[in-house]
């Protein structure tokens, strides 16, 4: 029988053993003797989450197309297996070969959310790889991080040899070629890191020194190795149609969170909401062509056998070929054993029509993300959605038979007042009123149900709000209480529901989002004290973190509750994402003046990414 | 047209559950472009019926699923197409046509054959010891009564497995499962037919558990590999047990 890293005895006593045994269809097996590079690709969360991530599938496919590379997958062992591995000293292994991760050439870790940071340490620790890059030798893999959190890698900088800043498809080939050369020439690990540092988009944290001022802010971040550039430029794909797409993705046996074909229709967003990091770091908008997507849909459904297909992008309603594509998908597949799952769309005649064709109107709900409760605050955050849009959209949908609405908001936005907060309840109430005003009594099936959800605002790097102050968890909870209270005063309160996110977790996210290298010690300390799977509410334990901050003498409020001055040097300033700091600051000032900025299709605002010569920046604008 | 598919479940896929196998076959049907029929309704699903769920950890050479199709080319072509769209660990062995009046796989199962042997890591120092162990297991099956305690919702209950153990035989493994002689490190094993299905049902793990408990030794049931070899149903005309596969015919 195939060699497995875990004995039957272990596999039969843990939950979902298939998380660890591999052998999925389209998983790639190669002869280790015939490849030059073994690459372990890791998503630091449990299998069902990690397997659902499109980005990993893209890289897996791209690496394995190279004959000289065998790329395998690694996920975080669940909390039932973790102690067994430690107790019996079983090294962490990759799924395909079941070989120990430590014997690989590379360990690539994708950084999708901040709350996975302790899971990264678990991966390293269980693999037997020193946690600190400085302690590693050629006996250890090169540990490389990439993904959205790499746009401020500083809180986890000491744990990584390299970071890749940008979209994964671009410079990996060069990195792997360099590695092969250097290995062949018997050069040192340092020489490899130096060669890597010269590849655009690669950041070697060990080659930089950070000095601080007395007030704790950064004085300077300077390269201390001659091969390291002063700034690292984010890499991006300029032609989406040419970009790699996994035609034969690995298909898990056990049910995962994303058990379907996912078509990425475009990257980036034209809107420029001021809190939104994705809207900035993925500029400019680049679309895939409708023809390519139609062909991909067909071939992927056939290759995977999935019974569902969905579209993915930041703001699908802005995709220029949306109507053609959606109509094609419905006509081609719906009713033939394939469900078309729609992304959240702007509510209009088109979206209501297609929604009614693919979902059960009585069971599905409409979704709006006004993000703020008043028009004033929506102007501050540059969210184009107006109250009129929401009420008109709702009215149309109510006539079409829907009676459930979900509204998403944020609390703790810059300049927010009690009035803005109460606006959340008032807007929810107006949506409910709209139902009773538009749908005659005899046509109503039951009550309308309006659910408002609030998350707490976290200022993110590379957004106009990177200068902003973030609230404490007490402030957050007070705000949530205010919404809750106001909801109860509403006439239609029986039709309204309200729920809010975990405040403590948000505060930690805030620290990691804008943290610097000094935060790394806290993450390590928390891990040592038992923090793991912090993104899972059942395992998140805030006291561990509070103790870790205290033990390391790191002040949370310094990172979260401080409004930054115009010229403060940020930990992430060494990264050139293309969008200029001047543009972001201009946007911050406009936010405080409650002025809106048109989207990229209405008017170019000169954000700085025009020089990449691609996407929406090159489009003709009719309204000028 | 009703088709009966016989397949294996081998290797690391002993760790996937019954629902996972179902989901796997649904996807295989679409990848292989089988003209499978769908149920009516808002969310149609494939018309598919599996015989008898296999416990996680067991392997098998005799798993069955019945499907309903609107057209199909030939037994051989179908089998090859399904295998090309699937993984070798869940290899399809045959695709045969059933009479429209045939009972579905799930409803008809009455008995199952299993072979039990020792896993590589549990093999004793000598072949004699290994052989002796299975002789002992055989003798256990042949006792006038095979008592075991069964936990039910109402509490514990003593049951006699004996009437549900129909046939047992110890011997060289390669003779007990001749088609797959190469696949195991062990040399000896036990082959046993057990009642299976809605009327009477005993799982091989239950039998093994009863044996190990009666023996009082340190052996644990994870030391043993259990493989299902075949599923049987009663042929109404004769009252005899015949393999599920034999209810269909090649086309
Ligand atoms: S619409 Fe706004 S929030 Fe959504 S992705 Fe675009 S910029 Fe971000
Ligand atoms: S350069 Fe202009 S069009 Fe291009 S992304 Fe920036 S604001 Fe939009």
What does this structure look like?
The complex is a heterodimer of chains A (624) and B (251). With 624 residues, chain A is of the alpha/beta class. Chain A has a domain at 8-233: Rossmann fold (3-Layer(aba) Sandwich), CATH 3.40.50.280. Helices cover 33% and strands 14% of the residues of chain A. Chain A contains 20 helices and 19 strands. Chain A has helices at residues 8-11, 47-50, 54-65, 82-87, 117-127, 172-184, 189-197, 278-281, 290-304, 322-333, 349-358, 375-380, 387-399, 418-438, 473-489, 503-514, 519-528, 542-552, 556-560, 581-592; strands spanning 37-43, 69-75, 106-110, 142-146, 162-164, 202-203, 208-212, 218-223, 232-233, 261-264, 266-267, 286-287, 308-312, 339-341, 366-371, 404-411, 449-456, 496-500, 575-576. In chain A, the strands form 6 sheets. Chain A has a 6-stranded mixed beta sheet. Chain A has a 4-stranded parallel beta sheet with strand order 15-16-17-18, covered by helices on one side. In chain A, helix 5 (117-127) links the parallel strand 3 and strand 4. Chain A is globular, with a radius of gyration of 25 Å. The mean pLDDT of chain A is 94. Chain B has 251 residues and is of the alpha+beta class. Chain B has 2 domains: 2-108, Pseudouridine synthase I, catalytic domain, N-terminal subdomain (Alpha-Beta Plaits); 110-234, Alpha-Beta Plaits (2-Layer Sandwich). Helix content of chain B is 24%, strand content 34%. Chain B is built from 6 helices and 12 strands. In chain B, strands 1, 2, 3, 4, 5, 6, 9, 10, 11 and 12 form a 10-stranded mixed beta sheet that branches. A two-stranded antiparallel ribbon of chain B has the order 7-8. Chain B is globular, with a radius of gyration of 19 Å. The chains are: A alpha/beta (624), B alpha+beta (251). The interface between A and B is medium-sized, with 31 and 34 residues. The complex binds iron/sulfur cluster (2 copies). The site of one iron/sulfur cluster (SF4) has 11 residues of chain A, from loops.
């Amino acid at each position: 029988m195939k060699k497995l890293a875990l004995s039957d005895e272990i596999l039969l006593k843990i939950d979902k053993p298939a998380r660890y045994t591999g052998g999925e269809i389209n998983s790639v097996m190669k002869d280790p003797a015939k490849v030059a590079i073994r690459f372990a690709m890791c998503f630091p969360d449990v299998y069902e989450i990690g397997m659902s991530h499109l980005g990993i599938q893209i890289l897996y496919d791209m690496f394995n197309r190279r004959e000289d590379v065998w790329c395998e997958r690694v996920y975080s062992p669940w909390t039932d297996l973790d102690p067994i591995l430690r107790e019996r000293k079983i090294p962490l292994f990759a799924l395909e070969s079941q070989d120990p991760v430590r014997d690989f050439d590379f360990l690539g870790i994708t950084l999708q959310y901040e709350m996975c940071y302790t899971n990264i340490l678990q991966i390293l620790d269980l693999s037997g790889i020193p946690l600190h890059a400085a302690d590693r030798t050629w006996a250890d893999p090169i540990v490389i991080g990439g993904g959205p959190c790499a746009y401020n890698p500083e809180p986890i900088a000491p744990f990584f040899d390299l970071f890749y800043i940008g979209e994964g498809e671009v410079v990996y080939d060069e990195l792997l070629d360099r590695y092969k050369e250097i290995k062949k020439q018997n050069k040192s690990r340092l020489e490899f890191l130096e060669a890597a540092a010269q590849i655009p988009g690669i950041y070697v944290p060990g080659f930089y020194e950070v000095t601080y001022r007395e007030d704790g802010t950064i004085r300077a971040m300077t390269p201390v190795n001659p091969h390291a550039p002063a700034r690292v430029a984010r890499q991006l794909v300029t032609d989406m149609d040419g970009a790699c797409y996994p035609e034969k993705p690995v298909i898990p046996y056990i049910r995962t969170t994303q058990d379907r074909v996912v078509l990425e229709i475009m990257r980036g967003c034209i809107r420029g909401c001021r809190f939104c990091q994705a809207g900035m770091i993925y500029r400019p908008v680049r679309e895939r062509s409708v023809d390519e997507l139609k062909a991909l849909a067909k071939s992927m459904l056939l290759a995977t056998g999935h019974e569902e297909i969905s579209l993915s992008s930041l703001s699908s309603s802005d995709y220029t070929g949306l109507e053609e594509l959606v109509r094609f998908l419905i006509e081609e597949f719906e009713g033939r054993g394939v469900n078309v799952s729609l992304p959240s769309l702007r509510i209009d005649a088109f979206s209501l029509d297609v929604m009614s064709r693919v979902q059960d109107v009585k069971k599905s709900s409409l979704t709006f993300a006004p993000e703020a409760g008043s028009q004033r605050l929506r102007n501050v955050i540059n969210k184009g959605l107006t109250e009129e849009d929401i009420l008109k959209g709702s009215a149309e949908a109510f006539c079409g038979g829907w009676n459930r609405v979900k509204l998403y908001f944020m609390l703790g936005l810059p300049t927010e007042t009690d009035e803005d907060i109460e606006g959340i309840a008032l807007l929810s109430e107006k949506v409910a009123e709209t139902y009773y005003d538009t749908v005659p009594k005899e046509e109503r099936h039951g009550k309308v149900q309006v659910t408002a959800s609030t998350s707490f605002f976290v200022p993110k790097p590379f957004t106009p709000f990177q200068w902003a102050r973030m609230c404490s968890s007490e402030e957050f909870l007070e705000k949530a209480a205010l919404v809750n209270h106001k909801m109860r005063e509403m006439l239609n309160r029986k039709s309204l529901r309200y729920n809010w996110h975990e405040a403590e977790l948000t505060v930690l996210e805030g620290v990691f989002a804008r943290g610097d290298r000094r935060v790394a010690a806290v993450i390590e300390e928390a891990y040592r004290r038992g923090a793991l799977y912090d993104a899972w509410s059942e395992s998140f334990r805030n006291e561990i973190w509070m103790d870790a901050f205290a033990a390391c003498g790191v002040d949370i409020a310094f990172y979260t509750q401080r409004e930054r001055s115009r010229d403060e040097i940020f930990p992430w300033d060494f990264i050139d994402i293309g969008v200029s700091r001047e543009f972001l600051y201009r946007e911050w000032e406009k936010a405080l003046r409650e002025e809106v900025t048109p989207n990229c299709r209405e008017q170019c605002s000169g954000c700085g990414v025009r020089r990449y010569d691609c996407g929406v920046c090159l489009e003709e604008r009719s309204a000028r | 047209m009703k088709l009966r598919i016989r397949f294996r479940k081998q290797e690391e896929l002993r760790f996937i559950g019954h629902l996972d196998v179902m989901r796997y076959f649904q996807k295989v049907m679409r990848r292989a472009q089988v003209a499978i029929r769908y149920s009516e309704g808002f969310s149609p699903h494939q018309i598919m019926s599996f015989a008898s769920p296999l416990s996680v950890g067991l392997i098998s050479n005799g798993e069955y699923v019945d499907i309903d199709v609107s057209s199909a080319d030939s037994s051989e072509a179908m089998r090859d197409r399904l295998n090309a769209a699937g993984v070798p660990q869940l290899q399809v062995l045959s695709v045969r046509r059933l009479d429209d009046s045939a009972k579905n796989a799930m409803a008809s199962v009455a008995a199952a054959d299993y072979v039990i042997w020792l896993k590589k890591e549990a093999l004793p120092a000598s072949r004699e010891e290994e052989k002796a162990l299975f002789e002992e297991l055989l003798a256990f099956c042949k006792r006038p009564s095979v008592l075991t305690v069964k936990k039910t919702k109402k509490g514990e209950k003593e049951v006699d497995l004996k009437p549900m153990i129909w046939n047992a035989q110890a011997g060289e493994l390669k003779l007990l499962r001749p088609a797959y002689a190469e696949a195991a490190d062990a040399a000896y094993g036990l082959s046993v037919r057990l009642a299976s299905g809605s009327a009477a049902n005993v799982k091989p793990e239950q039998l093994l558990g009863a044996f190990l408990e009666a023996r009082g030794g340190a052996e644990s049931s994870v030391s043993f590999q259990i493989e299902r070899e075949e599923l049987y149903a009663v042929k109404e005309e004769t009252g005899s047990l015949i393999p599920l596969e034999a209810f269909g015919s090649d086309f």
